Amino acid sequence: MSLLIIxxxxxxxxxxTPLLLAAIGELVVEKSGVINLGVEGMMLIGGLAGFIxxxxxxxxxxxxxLDGVCFASDNSVNQLQYIGALLIAALVGxxxxxxxxxxxxxxxxxxxxxxLGLTVLGAGLSNSLGGNFFGVDxxxxxxxxxxxxxxxxxxxxxxxxxxVFGQNLLVPFSFVxxxxxxxxxxxxxxxxxxxxxxxxxxxAYALGYPVILVRMLTIMFGGAMAGLAGAFIVIAQxxxxxxxxxxxxxxxxxxxxxxxxxxxxxxVLLGAYIFGIVLALEPRLKAIFSxxxxxxxxFLTALPYIVPVVxxxxxxxxxxxxxxxxxxxxxxxxxPRS
Amino acid sequence: xxxxxxxxxFGVWSTxxxxxxxxxxxxxxxxxxxxxxxxxxxxxxxxxxxYPWQARTASxxxxxxxxxxxxxxxxxxxxxxxxxxxxxxxxxxxxFAFGSIAAFAGYLLCGMPDTVWFLPVMLAFGxxxxxxxxxxxAALRVIANTNxxxxxxxxxxxxxxxxxxxxxxxxxxxxxxxxAESDPIHQSLQIVSIIERTDLHWGVVISGGAxxxxxxxxxxxxxxxSLRVAQNTPRAQRFAGFSPNMTIWLSFIISGAMAGLAGAIYLSAExxxxxxxxxxxxxLGFTAIVIAFLGRLHPFGIVAAAFLISYVNVxxxxxxxxxxxxxxxxxxxxxxxxxxxxxxxxxxxxxxxFGAQAILGERTA
Amino acid sequence: MNRALTTxxxxxxxxGAVVATPAQAETKVGFIYVGPPGDLGWTxxxxxxxxxxEALDGFTTTALENVPEGPEAVEAITQLAETGHDLIFTTSxxxxxxxxxxxxxxxxxxxxxxxxxxxxHENVSTYSGRFYEGRVVQGYIAANVTKTNxxxxxxxxxxxxxxxxxxxxxxxxxxxxxxxxxEIVWVFTWFDPAKEAAAAQALIDNGxxxxxxxxxxxxxxxxxxxxxxNAYGQASNMSRFGETAHLVSTVDDWDSYYVExxxxxxxxxxxxxDSWWGFTKDGMGGEVGMxxxxxxxxxxxxxxxxxxxxxxxxxxxxxxxxPCPIYMQDGALAEDCANGETHLTDGTLLGMNWYIQGIDGTxxx
Lengths: 338, 365, 365
Fold this sequence. Notes:
The complex is a heterotrimer. By secondary structure, chain A is mainly alpha-helical. Chain A contains 13 helices and two strands; from the N terminus they run ααββααααααααααα. Chain A has one domain (2-325): ABC transporter involved in vitamin B12 uptake, BtuC (Orthogonal Bundle). Chain A has helices spanning 2-31, 39-57, 79-106, 111-131, 160-165, 170-187, 189-199, 201-206, 211-236, 250-260, 265-288, 294-316, 319-325; strands at 59-66, 69-76. Chain A has a two-stranded antiparallel ribbon. In chain A, helix 2 (39-57) packs parallel to helix 4 and helix 3 (79-106) runs antiparallel to helix 4 (111-131). Chain B is mainly α. Chain B has 15 helices and two strands. Chain B has helices at 12-37, 41-54, 58-84, 92-109, 119-144, 148-168, 202-220, 222-230, 234-239, 244-271, 277-280, 284-294, 299-323, 328-344, 355-364; strands at residues 2-6, 350-354. In chain B, helix 2 packs across helix 3, helix 3 (58-84) runs parallel beside helix 7 and helix 12 crosses helix 13. Chain B starts with a strand and ends with a helix. In chain C, helix 5 (132-145) runs parallel beside helix 6 (160-176). In chain C, the strands form two sheets. Chain C has a six-stranded parallel sheet with strand order 2-1-3-4-5-11, with helices on both faces. In chain C, strands 7-6-8-9-10-12 form a six-stranded mixed sheet, with helices on both faces. Chain C has two domains: 25-129 and 254-277, Response regulator (Rossmann fold, 3-Layer(aba) Sandwich); 132-252 and 293-350, 3-Layer(aba) Sandwich (Rossmann fold). Chains in contact: A-B, A-C, B-C. Chains B and C meet through helix 2, helix 3, helix 10, helix 11 and helix 13 of B and helix 1, helix 3 and helix 4 of C.
């Protein structure tokens, strides 16, 4: 029994981490009064960028060469190369978000429309660049697996092995970022400015805070985190492989998480792991209960999308709680009064 | 030395000017993209612009364009009502699916009538299905104050699973089929083409009628005027005779009805049967959101945007068939157009003032 | 470039005329893909087949990628027909209705639909591979390699193609090791790496030490590799995704069929037909078929030798994949066997919707 619980927890870590990463980023964005629905698009572009970077950075030794063409090679990746690829993913994610930022902050475009546009852009651009980026077809590119943080033998250690030693760098990073964002928002002056801008941009402006600059920065932070989430899905969740549309709706689940969490970091963590466990449980239940009815089987398949709706209803019934945490200017275009 | 000055006067020019800039930007970007992707950019661009006259049969090409236009426009016009009032139904894809499911359910419930006279009833079932599915996020918003944007989106995935369930389970058709699908509806209930061999079918006319009817209501009735004035502030809504809740209900009912109608037409005219979601739904409900914004939430604009995007989309596949250029061009053109329209929308509310005049303006402000 | 433009201008003026007739009589062959060739599975193998045609003298090919299954395929297939393609392969089941619809409009163009069974017009052929023959060999290997006697099977949709594979696999496995059990997870998708991976991990955690997948991505192989268990490749050679995990891959092999059909069109000998090739074209040791096994790895020498012997016997027609007697899940003798057949008939296999004896669980339908 306890083994089963550990297995489910280990599996849910893999599934929850990208949700957590993307949600942490979007949390800061929304706290500054901006809603960016383009998370899915930023994840795709960032993920592809990370994969391309890792492909270029990996150590590749040709083992079979004929007439200057390499037919087989030994590829390997170390933590440093992986971190380099993650940085690229974050940067490209931030740059993608900046497009949204310019549209909404400088050109005062509608947040919802620009965010949806970013999603379409991400899907279209990553599909076409992934198939041919400077002559390389990245849908067919082979990249070596990223090693775990600790020696492979450590993963045999009970409990700690699968849950801690076997995990990818980004798993502990997601926890660190969560604490950092919580500390930033609630205990630093800069965090206070972000919240002030999200609460009432006109008074923040009147107090001399650079509303547009603050929002551009949070939007780009959100993009960087979404880029990392995408890179985790492409590189680390299974093994490195670029596939068109690989995020299949995870960006939207991350957005739902923010609402579930009523803009509180601790609850984002809880929510991400509830989703992770639901996603990990589905195939296990189907495998164990082989006589499951079709109705139940499809219900389980749809469960990751039903849970957010039910949870949203439950928490939204208490509007006081939402109002206390929700940024009051969320989604409203800011036009300085001159 | 650039400054934005709010416009004091709104004329036709203030609407047309930004759209012209957006169109120009889109053409430039589309041109650059094709220049980069194609070996013979000039002839490809020429083909993209004139393909209905180059193809073997022009009517076939116009058929595709009008068919696509009708689906996108009918859903987008419905959505635009809510978007104007800041009610965010982004789950039209799910309401479309449920429209199809409900139309098929109605067909089964009424004992599978084999007469064309049943078609209106079937379409009505589709409309009801779309409304029903749209009422869930509306009700959750009104009763439980739940964010309708996310619930309507999540319900897309749930509707897709319902579609998969009915096609693998209770309504499963031919057991030999390599996909989950229902039996086909009677031939008499399948909408036929107006012009032989083309996709221009009577469903396009029905959608057109629905668009015109809704546009007339929105533009020329007091009810529609109130909806338009409602905009986003609760005070204006009350002043216009609607409570905020009423606006939410109406927005979802109208957009659900239009998406449901599109779903029922799709079932009758395109597939003739229900099919598992990944082979049945192809993102019309999501593209329609983009179209709604491209058309600046105005019925005329939406129809024009739907037509332009459909024209480019069909053309991109044609160019790809003729010369092998990746049809991702269409996606990029669509996104550029959207960003250009969104990015220039502020020009209808502000004037851009350059140079010395800007400084002068600042001093006098 | 200028000349091309003038030609196009000229042809544009003659409304609806054919663009240009190529000087030499080249045969144009079009392909409709459901995914990108980079999926390294299903579409990748069709693209390898396309390249075999392209390599012939006097043939040019065009491929449209990522064409959605369902009604939208009508447009893509039509555009290939409109741009002068003589032969069009539509390479997924979901293109069946669209292929037949377009074929009716273009009687001079030949159409080939993969994995379908409807040939509504004389210019439509259907073809598919007997992929279950690969499952027989996989089942034999599983029976001899497994230590936990537990096989994890990731199934996409409950359609005859998938059920046939499970039955062929378990029939052979049980024959050589009666203690073998299979645990099946229905994921209701052909392609979702995260979902396939989660299913593989769940099966491994439950004690399976061999993973068989009837979905399209290499994710199950990658998970098996990481977990130190074995797996089979699906559709293409997936050995590079699992150095220590890979046992053998069932590879779809369309090259010889595509070349044969393209030549038939060029020679004017093309006729509508249905082809179902296994390891060999005739199942009796003749020419190369549509299925082959690639890279036997990670198994004892005697198991590999016997597996290859089974492959050879199936190819030569010395034995059948489903030899009588075969008992259904409830213990009843299969109808074909009761009727005195020596093996299950093609008709039974094409409509298979039941498990053989020894498989626990119910098919979700």
